[in-house]
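Researcher: Here's a chain I'd like modeled. Treat it as a single chain, no partners, no ligands.
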Amino acid sequence: MNVKIDSRSKIPFYQQLAQQLLVEIAIGNLQNGDQLPSIRDLAAETNLNLHTVHKSYKELQKKGIIAIKPQSKTFVVIEKSAKAKGVNLQQISMKVEQIMCEAFVLGISEHQLQQMFHDNMRKYYIER
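Model: Modeled as a single isolated chain. Structure tokens:
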């Protein structure tokens, strides 16, 4: 796995790691049922604290994207149930609204925001 943490970023390390794991799943490098590195192994690979990696895994677990099993085994488990989809759509809708509000408050134009969304959507929906 090719995970890179930007130590100069204002984004917390655990969020950077969780986002990169999400990207790996979105682009197909990690698939349902794939085992992720142990917390200890990923911490060593990324030079992050064990607690930071654990926090990233817990965030993804809360979203139903990974499952953490006894003896540090972690797997990608993307829930496909209607209930999970409903909950996830609601959470994503709230996040999109938060992004839009932040962009507005920061003075990002509607055109700039649309371009950002378009560029990112193309990365995950059109180019696949």
